[in-house]
Amino acid sequence: TTPMLPEVVEYVAIQMREAFGNPGSAHSFGRVARRLLEDSRERIAGILSADASEVIFTSGGTESINMAVQGLTLGRSGTIALTEGEHPATVQACARACQHGMSLVSLPVDAQGRLVEQYFDELPWKELRLVCVILAHNETGVIQNLTRLSTMCHSRGVPLLVDAVQAAGKIPVSFRDLGAAALAFGAHKFHGPRGVGGLLLKRGVRMPPFLEGGHQESGRRAGTEPVPLIAGMCRALELFQANQADRMEMMRRGRDCLESLLEATCQPLIVHGRDAERLPNTLSVAFRGVPGEPLLINLHLAELACSLGSTCSSGSVEPAPALLAMGLAAEICRSSVRFSLGVQNTMSEIEEAGSRVAAVVSRLRMERGAL
Predict the structure, then answer these.
(1) Which of helix, strand or coil describes residue 179?
(2) Is residue 312 flagged as an active site residue?
(3) I want to staple 165 with a disulfide (CB 3.0 to 4.6 A). Which of 61, 287, 291, 307 is the partner?
């Protein structure tokens, strides 16, 4: 999650005052909100290479994914294919679909987290009803090349759902070029407001509404649209678009700087997905011989915001499924930490972070050696 940029905060505040009306109402206040809503829809569609009619506003990536999985499989029997190590939103939405007659098959990844294309031909294409792929992984930042898979889905009439929640607003995303039937995105990943996102649904693809009770979003998602938040999401996406190359290069330099500092001071370590194309802001590293939970606690005490694996219901930290899917040992997965950079991070902050990580890792290794 990223903090809202000051320009976005100001823009949302203005629209909360000026576009407070219900965009479904015919009075003047409603018409002001409607104009802003549809203008935002047009602008977002343009940036993501979609048609405005293909944009459905939601509460965020999780709802968008659930909406697509349920809508594209409801009342059908067959198989869903999804990437090994998918985001829990997709995994659990597909698990729910299995309770209503679907079955699952995995799309394997290699040691770098990339889809293994040789397995595409082995998929049960005649039974497939949906293929789900995460475009850029939230744990590793690894970006998938979906060209061949998209072509195969299109030629066989199987809808492709792309989770672009981590990708949109960080790298260029073209709905048209991806050839997907549906694509999910969320504003809080690119310095926009929380609680708002969208689903791009290809023109001609039909599915029942996820939420009932209103005519909003052309009858596809009931509920009064949060126009100021949608406008803020649009503004955040436009700020990325306006400075896309510079922003990506700045984050990449920062990520590479942190990676180099850790490699110089924290050996032995493993950089996950190092040889794959990655998001410019994401760094996933395993510190060999350092237990994950004390590592995370001490990094937080050192005022570093980072994450470790995924927390299960018992409160213990389990190995991240995405790392296990890459063939890594559970011990390595439990020692893996994800660092995420933002456009507001300075190089001095990154250098200081590297120094603090090195101090924590060194101390924990010394303590373990003394036991």
Answers:
(1) coil
(2) yes
(3) 61
Which amino acid is located at 124 in the chain? P
What's the first-to-final CA gap in the chain, in angstroms?
Answer: 38
Of the listed 234, 266, 306, 312, which one is catalytic? 312
What is the torsional sign of CA 26, 29, 32, 35?
A: negative
**Nearest Cα residue to 266 out of 282, 289, 292:** 289
State the amino acid at position 318 in one-letter form.
E
Angle at Cα 341 formed by Cα 264 and Cα 358, nearest 5°?
30
Helix, strand, coil percentages for the chain (3-state, nearest 5): 45, 15, 35
pLDDT in tens, 3-51: 999 999 999 999 999 999 999 999 999 999 999 999 999 999 999 999 9
Whose tokens are 């101390």? That residue is 363
Residues 273 and 301: beta-carbon distance below 8 Å: no
Nearest CA-CA partner of 300 in 308, 310, 312, 290: 308
Q: Which residues contact 32 (CB under 8 A, 6 or more apart)?
A: 18, 19, 21
Tell if the pTM clears 0.85, that is, is over it: yes
Using CA atoms in the order 333, 85, 142, 241, what is the torsion angle rounded to 10 degrees?
Answer: -130
